[in-house]
Amino acid sequence: MRTSGVPETDVRRRIATDMADDVPWNRVLNSICTEPHPLGVEMAAAAAHTNLGDVRIFRGTKRIERKVVQLLLDLLGHPGGGSGSLVSGGTEANLIAMLVARETARARGTLTDRPEVVVSSTVHFSFTKVFGLLGLTPVVVPVDDDLRLPAAEVARRIGEHTVAVVATAGSSEFGVVDAVDEIGPVVRGRNVHLHVDAATGGFIIPFARELGHDLPQFDFSVDGVDSITIDPHKYGLANVPAGAILFRGAQDAGRFAVDSFFVDTPVHNTLLGTRPGSAAISTYAVLEHLGRDGFRSLTRTNFEVTAHLVAGLRAAGHELAAEPQLNIVVVKMEHAVRISQLLESWGWIVSTSKRFGETLRLVVTRHVTREMVDEFLPVLERARREVAAEAALR
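The chain above was modelled as a monomer; its predicted structure follows.
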């Protein structure tokens, strides 16, 4: 740290210089986050000083967090009930869900010395962190031909050590939605916690279903679902970081509780003690401003652009790895990693998966337009041809 400070103008200039190296959104095709809504940005800036960990001071901000939780519960099929908290994102939400599952089993007297969680082979990598931290053993179920977690196999894998099952409503790699409406009935009544990771799909599926898209029901309207992860900072257009963990039971969020030891300060139900109130304010602003109609309109546009992208890819002779259910398109492609690297050198960001090689993953969200797709597709073809030529010379 410097002895004497730097003038504000110099600080702004230095930061602007470094941030100029960030890739602009109109070249990003790999992110399920996007530029947040301007109203959310404005309100987050106004709440930059707030801390949800100190509710004696920021009592109004805390009240808005409770309003956001109720709005999200309403969105996810549980109006007027349930519990939950805003958190840093999907990883923390999934961790708290598994903590609650473990502690619920302990309270029931069913927790063994080797607790297990049934997951799909495509479960999000955050669960690798979660299981390592909590001492949980994953029971990995291969996905079916549609890349979904098969309910019948879930039923077969539940045993005396099982404390939870994790289903995914919008995998981050393929955008695939597990048949939660089939998994719920096979879990219900077996003293096993059913958690749905809807970090990606939580702000897509409800509105897509309203638009007539054939997607499984995944929320608390499915009997057996105990908790849901949802990320407002993805398709919810809130500022980063803004995640949420929601529970069916009014007291479930309290199953993970840590006393702060300060008088008149309530227990913490999240891992973070200091939590930015700006996340609650940003999320509330966007939810209230857009409403269901606004999100339905955004979802309609995202699906239309996705269809345009798929049509362009197929017209160019590309084969998809799976029929996209949401706004994630995965393309089979030889030398996918090298093509991704070449595209990045030209300023375009796409992604590939270590688990599913020889594929390119393209994500459509608010900043991806038809015009951007039309600009990208010829660049992709140029990259594919150049990489094929490189490979032929080896």
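The CA atoms of residues 311 and 318 lie 10 Å apart.
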